[in-house]
Design goal:
This protein is an alpha+beta fold and 388 residues long. The protein contains seven helices and 24 strands. The strands form six sheets. Strands 1-12-11-10-9-8 form a six-stranded antiparallel β-sheet, with helices on both faces. It has a five-stranded mixed β-sheet with strand order 17-18-19-20-21, covered by helices on one side. Strands 5-4-16-15 form a four-stranded mixed β-sheet, covered by helices on one side. The chain is globular, with a radius of gyration of 21 Å.
């Protein structure tokens, strides 16, 4: 399992750690690690070991077995030996003992695995310098780091096929777009002693179409600039905190890559602000682009082969909400909007709602994963139109 987290600043994490932990337990019950803090939630102690044949997972890369077997965590996740699996796919692996971080570099992409402070703490993974990442199950056994399968495959363009009869997982290359995504920092032109600003956004390079590349980068930069100016204006209207106050205003923004295949790039941007009060607030923005022409892809573009996709999605979301009715405001969901926020994943689309839209603050920003098979005619792949 995994949960999305923001690592835009250590101060930010300290303020929202309790909220994130409570939300994670309420929604998915998985392991959570907050980089930069000592706050963790641990699953039940993992009893599996590499010597237990019944729990061993045989690992193959392109059909060829690697020496070290995987294990099963206490909550049922299959865990792979990170170093050996990464090397088997031809990646370079480095370990920073001080930071307790493993960096896996493959072609133009670099994944950072921040391991927890204990043997059962999980791992926090970011890609290509982004400041938002995912937490996955993980365990350290006799100095070997084991991580959930998707912690590897999601980041580096691979797909896993499971054979239950032989307890074997085969990692095969799926491929990523031949582009590079780097992180840049937007420096504020207006500064003061009581506001910390940390605005980071992606920059894409390596596209065949220079105009498309420029259009995509312009959109990312414009989003960051607009958000910064909006919150700076709010901070000015609020005025400086009292001189005897320990409050520091914060303006943070970060992103993560959720999909980077088939001529499509999908980015999830999370903006955070704290201007006093009990807690800050966050807002998510999904930005999905066609690399052929640089145009932003709306939800309706992907699902246009189903003229009733909104009604079909409404039914799916209502069904999911009923399973966890206590998490949401009663009668709050009236149907998805024409410009509903979403991002792409290998599994399909994930729709999201902002804080307080359909649930209280403690529920965070509710997300609803939906596969294309659930809403599109059989055999239709909406991404085919964007392949080079």
């Amino acid at each position: 399992m995994k949960t999305t987290q923001n690592n835009t600043s250590k101060t930010h994490l300290k303020k929202i750690s309790a909220f994130l932990l409570a939300t994670t337990l309420a929604t998915v019950g998985t392991v959570t690690v907050l980089p930069g803090t000592s706050s963790t939630v641990q699953a039940a102690t993992t009893k599996a070991s590499t010597s237990n044949a019944k729990s061993a997972i045989h690992v193959q890369v392109e059909g060829k077995a690697i020496a070290t077997t995987g294990i099963v965590s206490a909550n049922g996740s299959s865990l792979l030996p990170l170093k050996d699996t990464a090397k088997a796919i031809g990646a370079t692996v480095t370990f920073n003992a001080k930071e307790k971080t493993v960096t896996v570099t493959k072609d133009k992409h670099k994944a950072s695995f921040a391991l927890g402070s204990g043997s059962d703490d999980g791992v926090f993974v970011t890609l290509d310098g982004s400041t938002i990442g995912d937490s996955y199950d993980a365990k350290i056994v006799n100095g070997t780091s084991y991580v959930a399968i998707k912690a590897v495959t999601d980041q580096l363009g691979y797909r896993a096929v499971w054979n239950g009869a032989t307890r074997t997982v085969n990692i095969t290359k799926e491929g990523l777009n031949n582009i590079e995504v780097t992180t840049t920092t937007l420096k504020p032109t207006k500064t003061n002693s009581y506001t910390e600003t940390n605005i980071k956004y992606p920059v894409v390079s390596g596209l065949d179409n220079a105009e498309a590349e420029a259009a995509i980068n312009k959109a990312f930069a414009a989003h960051a600039q607009t958000y910064l100016e909006k919150v700076q204006k709010q901070a000015k209207e609020f005025g400086a905190p009292p001189k005897d106050s320990v409050i520091t205003y914060e303006i943070d923004s970060g992103y993560k890559i959720t999909y980077n295949r088939n001529g499509v790039l999908s980015i999830l941007v999370t903006d955070y602000e704290y201007l006093g009060g009990a807690h800050g607030s966050s807002i998510q923005t999904g930005m999905t682009f066609s690399l052929k022409d640089g145009k932003q892809i709306q939800l309706g573009d992907l699902l246009k082969s189903n003229s009733n996709y909104r009604k079909d999605i409404d039914k799916i979301i209502n069904a999911q909400m009923k399973k966890n009715g206590d998490l949401y405001f009663k009668d709050s969901f009236k149907g998805i909007a024409a410009n509903q926020g979403y991002y792409l994943t290998d599994s399909g689309i994930t729709l999201f709602f902002q804080q307080y839209d359909i649930a209280p603050y403690a529920a965070g920003m509710p997300e609803f994963p939906i596969t294309f098979k659930q809403v599109l005619p059989s055999g239709v792949n909406p991404l085919d139109a964007y392949k080079a």
